[in-house]
Amino acid sequence: MVVNPGNTWASAISPQQLSLLWNRKAQGRINNWNQLNPAWPKRPIKLCGPGSDSGTFDFFNKVINGDEDNSRRDYTASENDNVVVNCVANDPQALGYLGYGWFRSNAGRLKALAVLNPKGKAVQPSVQTVLQSKYQPLSRVLFIYVSDQALNERPEVRNLTSFLVGNAPSLATKANYIPFADTTIRLLETKLYRRVLGTSFGGELPVGLTIGDALQRSFDQHKRPEYR
């Protein structure tokens, strides 16, 4: 969650305030800062965010509004994150959401809001707070999808997959995203080596489930009897 650096009144926001602002019923009704917090100024909010084809859009609305499609539409929307960055950076009244890498790459032009986690603590987004599962509920993982048949029959697919998993920390760091801990990488490599199929994140996962918990859950659900 980001605002313009000229925003002097907002430093933290709750999931409840975000839902009040971004859900479908808010369109045309919740338009000013003071409607979120009476201490904030009675000024119009300029809203900026991903378009509906974005995975960030789907995730945000699922965890904040309860449904991937439950979003107001009267905002500056784009699948191009540069548009979202400029929308917030060019308007002191703006508020938006986008991926952490884009915030890090434009930290001089944007101000991150702390988000109240389920324990009621205001937490800033950072590598540490995400890896420690403190930045909730707005942290998520990025996926690659690999065919098991291709892994077995095409060496180049296995080599690429092994390269991506083994080098994920350095690749994520270069992209200004958040790398998995080494212990998580070892779990992923074990899943690949043992051909534990299926996603660790399928079905109705609890919001706030840690990455390590999700991976371990997939071992419990999918690992073969000979590996028990």
Offer a quick outline of the entry.
The chain has 228 residues and is α/β, with parallel strands linked by helices.
**Superfamily (CATH H level) name of the largest domain:** Periplasmic binding protein-like II
Q: What's the CATH architecture name of the largest domain? A: 3-Layer(aba) Sandwich
What structural category do the secondary elements indicate? alpha/beta
Number of strands: 8
Evaluate the radius of gyration. Answer: 20 Å
Outline the biggest β-sheet.
Answer: 5 strands, mixed
Shape designation: elongated
CATH topology (fold) name of the largest domain: D-Maltodextrin-Binding Protein, domain 2
Mean pLDDT across residues: 89
In the predicted model, the low-confidence regions spanning at least 5 consecutive residues are: none
> What is the count of distinct domains?
2
Work out the strand percent.
5-15%
Total helical segments: 10
Word description of this protein:
- With 228 residues, this protein is of the alpha/beta class.
- It has two domains: 2-131, Periplasmic binding protein-like II (D-Maltodextrin-Binding Protein, domain 2, 3-Layer(aba) Sandwich), CATH 3.40.190.10; 148-227, no CATH class.
- Helices cover 39% and strands 9% of the residues.
- The protein has helices at 15-22, 55-65, 81-89, 100-105, 127-131, 148-153, 155-166, 168-174, 182-194, 211-222; strands at 2-3, 12-13, 46-49, 76-77, 94-96, 111-112, 114-116, 122-123.
- It has a five-stranded mixed β-sheet with strand order 4-3-5-1-6, with helices on one face.
- Helix 2 links the parallel strand 3 and strand 4.
- The termini are far apart.
- The model has no long low-confidence stretch (mean pLDDT 89).
